[in-house]
Amino acid sequence: MSDELQFKYEVEIKSVEKRQTLTKEVKEELKESGMMDEKGKLKISGVSGKMLKRMKQEFVDCPVLKKEVQFVPCFVCPNFLSRVTGKVLCKGDNL
């Protein structure tokens, strides 16, 4: 058995100029998983503030939900495997 990640989709990460706001549902999910504090500030261990700022301006065309999704919700999705040079490796399982 190899250490290769088993992914179904390789999704390109796109960027917008202004930062996007997260939906209430996403914020609740992030708070529950400990990735956002009570004030709504993202706190993802191992991710710098500079990188978080960049992540807030990125989105992907989600192959599972068939719509554009901001990168932060994509990052916390159970299908998210890895981010590699401007792409997301996605398991592609139904949500």
Describe the protein's architecture and organization:
The chain has 95 residues and is α+β, with helices and mostly antiparallel strands. Helices cover 23% and strands 26% of the residues. It has three helices and five strands, in the order βααββαββ. The protein has helices spanning 24-32, 49-55, 71-76; strands spanning 9-15, 58-62, 67-70, 80-84, 87-90. Strands 3-2-1-5-4 form a five-stranded antiparallel sheet. Strand 2 and strand 3 (67-70) form a beta hairpin. The two termini are 27 Å apart. The model has no long low-confidence stretch (mean pLDDT 88).
Mind sketching the topology for me?
Layout: E1 9-15, H1 24-32, H2 49-55, E2 58-62, E3 67-70, H3 71-76, E4 80-84, E5 87-90
Antiparallel strand pairs: 1-2, 1-5, 2-3, 4-5
Summarize this structure as a short list of keywords or feature phrases.
alpha+beta, 95 residues, globular, five-stranded antiparallel sheet
Number of helices: 3
Q: Count the strands?
A: 5
- Proportion of beta-strand residues: 25-35%
Radius of gyration: 13 Å
| Envelope shape | globular
Largest sheet, strands/sense/barrel: 5 strands, antiparallel
Low-confidence stretches: none
The share of residues in helices is: 10-25%
- N-to-C span: 27 Å
What is the structural class? Answer: alpha+beta
Give the oligomeric state of the chains in this entry, treating copies of one chain as homo and distinct chains as hetero.
single chain
Mean pLDDT: 88
Which H/E pattern describes the elements? Answer: EHHEEHEE
Number of domains: 1
Give the neighbour order of strands across the main sheet: 3-2-1-5-4
